[in-house]
Amino acid sequence: MITGILDYRDDTLLITTLKNGIYLLHDSQFIRKPTLADPIFNNDRIYCAVNVNKNEFAVGTTSGGCFIINLDGKLIQTISRTEGLQNNNILCLFLDKNQNLWMGLDNGIDMTAYNTAIKRILPDKRNQLAGYAVRLIGGKLYIGTSDGLYSVPVDPNNPDLSFSKGDFARIANTGGQVWHVNEVNNEILMGHHEGSFAIRDNQAYPLLPGVGSWLFSPLPFPENNQLLVGTYNGLQLLQNVGGNVISKGKIEGISESLRFVLFDNENNVWASHPYKGIYKIVLSADKKTLTYKIYTKANGLPSDVNNYVFNIKSKIVVATQKGIYEYNASSDKFVSSNILPPVFNDQPIQYLNEDADGNIWFECDKKVGMIDYRKSMSAETYSILYFPELTNKLVRGFEYIYPYNMGNIFIGAEKGVYHLNLRNYLAHVSPLAVLIGRVKTVGIMDSIIYGGFDDQLNRRADERKISALPNALNSIHFEYSSPQYEQERNIEYSYQLVGFDDQWSTWTKKTEKDYTNLPYGNYTFIVKARTNLGNESRPVSYAFKILPAWYQTVWAYIIYGCIFLALVYALNQWQKEKFLQQQEKYAKEQEHLKYMHQLEMDRNDKEIVKLQNDKLESDVSHKNKELANATMHLVERGKLLSKIKEELLRIQRNTPGLATSADFKRLINTINDAEKNDKHWDQFVSHFDEVYSDYLTALKNKYPTLTATDLKLCAYLRMNLSSKELSQLMNISVRGVEIARYRLRKKLNIATEENLFDFLMNIKMEH
Fold this sequence. Notes:
Layout: E1 2-9, E2 12-17, E3 22-26, E4 29-32, H1 38-43, E5 46-53, E6 56-61, E7 66-70, E8 75-79, E9 90-95, E10 101-105, E11 108-112, E12 118-121, E13 131-137, E14 140-145, E15 148-153, E16 169-170, E17 178-184, E18 187-192, E19 195-200, E20 203-209, E21 213-218, E22 226-231, E23 234-241, E24 244-251, E25 260-263, E26 269-273, E27 277-283, E28 290-295, E29 308-312, E30 315-320, E31 323-328, E32 333-336, H2 341-344, E33 349-354, E34 360-364, E35 367-372, E36 383-386, E37 401-405, E38 408-412, E39 417-420, H3 422-427, E40 435-441, E41 447-450, E42 467-469, E43 476-481, E44 492-498, E45 512-515, E46 521-530, E47 540-546, H4 554-654, H5 662-676, H6 679-692, H7 695-702, H8 708-718, H9 723-730, H10 734-748, H11 756-766
Parallel strand pairs: 42-47
Antiparallel strand pairs: 1-2, 2-3, 3-4, 5-6, 6-7, 7-8, 9-10, 10-11, 12-39, 13-14, 14-15, 15-16, 17-18, 18-19, 19-20, 21-22, 22-23, 23-24, 25-26, 26-27, 27-28, 29-30, 30-31, 31-32, 33-34, 34-35, 35-36, 37-38, 38-39, 40-41, 40-43, 43-45, 44-46, 46-47
Helix pairs in contact: 4-5, 4-6, 4-9, 9-10
C-alpha cells in the first residue's frame, strides 16, 4: 500500500509504503531506498510523508513518531513523544508556507516549528537534564548536564550544527553535576561537582579528585602551561607537563568558593563570590600563595551580594542587581559603567559574554538578549535584540551562553540546551500577518457576529458590510492572532477602537480585547502585530455600529422635544402663576404694610392729635385758669369796690357833713368810675375768645341786636357763673341780673322752658 508520493530529484519520485519501507520510482522501475531508519520502519508502519525542503522529507509512523530524513537516507531528527508530541501515532503531515510541520494524531493536532532558528537539544531524551556547559571540540559537541557529560559527533563545517547531530553518548565516569568544559593546551578538561577531570577516549580521568571545580582559566604565561582552577574552597593550580596535566596543589590564602575567575591586563586575578563580594587577587611569584582585597558596597558596588565579574571590552566589569559596574584603577573603586548604561540602567544583570565579533550576550531579568555591534561604525552605536523564546528558560543562578559562531549559539537551560542559529533568526523575516478570528457580543446572551470565515476583512472599506447591533448588545469581545505560529512567543499586538480610543494601545501579548457599554455610533476595531525584530504587520479592521436604544432614536428625541416644550410651557405657566401669586402676595403684603403704615400713621396722628389735644387742653386749662383768674379778679374787684363803697356810705351816714365834702364826693365818684371802667372787661374778652374760640364774635354775628351788656351777660352765663357773681361783675343787683336774663331771653327768642345755659352752649356747638 502506497502512503506517499514525493518529489525526489529531477524525474525521480520517492514512494513510501505502509509496510515495505521507501522506494524510488525512476523510468517505470521501483528501486528500494535504504535509510538509517529502516529498522524502525520494519516495526512501525509508514502512514504519511511530506517534503520538508528540497533536501529533506518527513515520514509519519504508527507508533514511532515522525522522522526527518535527508535525500541520502540519513536520519536527521526524530520527533516523538520524547520530544513533546502528545503521542507517536502520526496519521497525516502538512507543511505550511512558513515550513511549520503540522501533524495529525489519532487524538489531536501538534505543530513543530521545524524551520525555526531556535531548537532544543536533549542529550538524554529520557531525562530532561539541565544544561550547564557546552563546547565544540575536535568535531564533537560536548554538553555538560546535571547528570554527566554527553558528546555527539558533528560536522564543524555545517553552518547549523543542530541538523548534523546524531545520538548523544554519555562520557564514562562523569555521573553528577558538570559545571564546565573547555579545551586547554589540546586537553579536554571538565569541571565537576566531584573534582577536575581530563576527558580522553570518551572517559573521564581525575585531576583534582574530591575538590568540586567550577572552571579553568589559563595563566597568562604560555611557557608555563599552567591553569588556575576555581574550586569550592579556593584556587588550585594545574600544569601541563609532557602532555599530562598534573596538580600543583592549592594556592594558599583563600578558601572561599570561586565560580568566576579571570585575569586583567596587569595579570591580576579577579574572582567573585555571590554573597561576599569581588576579590582582587595577587599571586606570589611561585604561585603557592596569594593576597587579596574584597570589594563590596563600601567600594562603590550597589550591594554586597549577587555580584558577578566578567571581562567585557578588555575591562573588568561586574554584573549587579543595579546594572553594570566597572573597576576604576585610579580610585581603586567600582563605578557605574559607561560601556552600556542606556541598555541596562539599573536592571539586574546575571550574565555577560562577549563573542568573537564583539557582540555582548547577556541575561537580564530572566530574558536573553544580544547587544549587536555588527552594523556599528563605532562602539557608541549598537542595536538590542531580545529572544522571547528563551525567557525563563535558563537555569537560574547558573546562566550560560556559548556563542560559537553566528549560526551556532548554545544556551544552557533547565531542560537541555537551546541552539540558536542567529543568522537564520535574523533572516527569517517572513511577512507578518494578523487576523481577527472572532467577534462576539458579551452579556446575558453571548452571540458571535463574526467568526473569521468570510472575506469581509479583505474587501475595500466602502464594500464591507457593517454589522448593525442593537443597543442591548453594546459589549463586544474581539479575538485576534497571527498565523505565524513559529513566532508565537515573539509576537505582540496593538489595537485601537476608532470612535472610542484616542490612540493605539501599548504593545501586549494578549490576543483578545473587551469593550463594554459602548455608546451608540459607528466603530472600527483595528489591530496590528509585530515581532521582537521590529517586523510589523499590516493592520486589519472590523467595522460595526451600535444602534441607538429606543430612547435614543429620532422619534424619541422628537417626543423628548415635545415633552420639553410642554414642560417649558408648564413651567412658564407655573412661573406666571407663581409670579401672580407672588405679586398678589406682595400686593397683600404691601396692602398690609400700607395698612399697618396707615395704622401707624393714624396712631401717630392720634398720638399727635392727642398730644395736640393735650396741649390744647393744657392751653385751654391754662387759659381757663387765666380766664377764671381774670373773672375772679373782676369779681373780687367788684366785691372790693362794693365793700369800699358800702363802707364809705356807712361813714357818710354816720358822719354828718361828710357827704357835702368835696373830697368825699370825689372819692365816691372815683369808685363809681372804677366800677364803670371797661378796661378789665376788654382783657376778659380777649381771654374768653381764646378759650371759647371767638364765641362772642360768633354770637354777635348771629344776633346782631345784642348790646355790649348783653354780650357780657352771655359770656358770664357761658361760664356758668351764679347770679350773685353776675351782680358783682356787672355792678347791678341780683334783681337786675334776673331782669337782664329776661331781656336776653327775649332778644334771643328763647322759650321759657329752655335753659339759657344750654342754649348758649348749643350756639357754640353749632358754630
